[in-house]
What does this fold into?
Amino acid sequence: MPRIQQLSPQVVAQIAAGEVIERPASVVKELVENSIDAGATRIDVEVGQGGTDLLRVVDDGCGIEADDLALAFAAHATSKLSSAVDLHQLGTLGFRGEGLASIGGIAQVLLQSRPAGQTCGAELQCHGGQLSPVRVWNGAPGTRIEVRHLFFNVPVRRKFLRGPSVEMAQVAEAFTRLALSQLSLHLTLRHNGKVVYDVPTSAGLLDRIAIFFGDDLRRQLFPIEAEQGRVTLGGYVAGPECERGGAQMQYLFVNGRWVRDRGLSQALQEGYRGLLMTGRHPVAFLFLEVPSDEVDVNVHPTKAEVRFRRPEKLQQLISNTIRARLQTEDLTATLRAPMPQPVAPPTASPQADLPFAPASPAPPTVEARRLPPASRPPTPPNKPAEAPRLPLSSPTAEKRVTPAPPVPETRPAPAPLARPAKAVQMHDLYLVVEVPEGVLVIDQHALHERILFEQLQERWHAGALESQRLLIPEPVSLTPAQAALVLEQAGPLAQLGLDVSDFGAGTVLLSAYPALLGKRSPRDVLRAVVDYLASKERPPTREAMLNELLSLMACHAAVRAGDRLTPEEIADLAEQRHLAQDSHHCPHGRPTSLLFTRQELDRQFRRT
Ligand code: ADP
Ligand code: MG
It folds into this structure.
């Protein structure tokens, strides 16, 4: 064993830097946080080649005195903390004095700064820890930092960096977290000279969510707000139909700082219990404000993890608030749009679609949708007291005396009181089912897809997904970028029975595909996979990937819109509705069924 010796300051600096700076995104986080702490109102981030070659952050903050420039690069040098007492009442994002020291140790940094109110500024370079002399700099008030050739002196680290697009995705993620937490800031992000995001001061939280994740998501969010003692919770949660395969769309902020916290994430998931299938994750943006003596942010070099004094309290607050909020929303997509008004009786053609017309006191089930007011049964059983629910539902089949259905209702007599009691296929697409609450309209494809998805997932977990080998591997030509995307996911794809290998020049060889796909062309399936991967800004997590593939397979194997089903198939499908763990929504987030409530029907027909 060699003798013990003190490590050189350079090695110490590199080891320390490794904890704080993992990739370009970590540099962006550290620099932008410094700008925020400096009171900047505008921060511009510029990235070249995913940040591996250039990162530049320019702010209009308070600036650094010329005499302090060198100190800014010293380890454990900070202007934000002077005693351990301050550690418990932090008002800044930084405080460990490690950011610039770490970056300066593993890159080539140019720091230029001019304190507000001074006529000129100064600049300094730090290359792998080596400082240049301080020079005069005639720039605008604020600070400008350029970081070039990240990890130039740590080849192992440099090797671990991924391609520019992947690194850029990470930078964008870091930027997103900062922009969501600092609402009064004007932030811009440029990549290779092009504007990626421009987030104006005027953009509030919802606007920012829309900027980063699109208008569709914005429309699906519910605000939440709660207070418990000195703790407040705010933000937005999305309806369960926005579910994702991973937790990456869960943004959690504690006192303005983005954090990761298992307990709080579980609490969020708990808020959706019963609304999401296992393995699916909700979308949420949660902002907790916790008194500083209740939370310790000094447990992690990048401060991505914090420790709470009473985590259970916060967890409860989160799950209860979310659960209560979601309960106020009806989660089967209940029809709220007004139905056709009685003043405009439908023309003959819609009526032709009706499978049957009621001519007797049938309960208001499927007939209610498009019937002209005149054909309403004369003496409807509209007094629940005289006509109890259960007996109502069974005799209806016999009472339909004038059926003129395009799809004859040839189903054998339904088992009395079975739920759902009856199902009829319409337009070769919708199954209409009487349920105690009203009338349920099922999208046959969406529901079947959901059921298959569940079954596939189960089989996959049980390791029973079979794959079919192709006698002659099939070449599929893609663009080189698409091929790279697919080959990057060869591992997870193989787990699902889809074997791909590189054939060069953008061509991918397909040698096996999931047996469950039956007669579907494996090439089509692969293309669907490519489309999915290409639609992602960043590579999906393994779990998201597997879930998406299962849902693609389910989608391909499910009955289609336009498939006429046999009465048995109809009955089967309607009955299986209860087997799907989350039968409200198909794996793609479209509703599987719509409920026309009895109440709403009665109201529309002016029976109440
Ligand atoms: P910390 O942020 O933990 O204090 P850093 O190494 O990130 O440590 O920064 C060291 C010091 O350099 C900060 O405390 C601050 O005084 C100064 N500094 C860094 N960036 C800026 C900036 N953009 N504007 C003004 N001062 C800055
Ligand atoms: Mg800092």
